[in-house]
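batch_manifest entry 22 of 60
target: Transcriptional repressor NrdR
source organism: Acetomicrobium mobile
requested by: lab member K.T.
priority: normal
notes from requester: please return tokens only, no post-processing; we will run our own comparison against the previous entry in this batch. if the run fails, retry once and flag.
--- input ---
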Amino acid sequence: MRCPKCNYEDSRVIETRAVEDGSVIRRRRECPKCGRRFTTYERMERNKVLLVVKKDGRREAFDRQKVLKGMIRACEKLPVSLETLENAVSSIEEELYSLGVGEVSSASIGEMVANRLKDIHHVAYVRFASVYREFTDLKNFIDEISKLLEKKEGGKDQR
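--- output ---
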């Protein structure tokens, strides 16, 4: 594995462990030339392509990095670990592929992300929902927060 700092073509594996229910291998590596440590992930390559149907009808290949990027943006400056978000994205990806369909709407993916974020952190959920559901005024925010508070008062949620 090439070093991201000095581009040296070899690295030493320091630690290896399975993550995300064993479907991914995480490796900590060290460059013997510059000493930089970095992490790599190995995932099983899928033969089947999953297409995402956008609102305007365009189709593009599913990209887990785009989902992760959106979740990271929603969790900015919140106490949510990258590992938690990676696990959520893997869960969404597994669920999508298990549907056994070749195409899925971006709206379906957005709902899956929103539901995962609701379980992870309420502020992240409201941030994501405000963009995804295109909140147009303060009333939309108040309605969504009221729903969260009703659930919390019901004793189900403590976030």
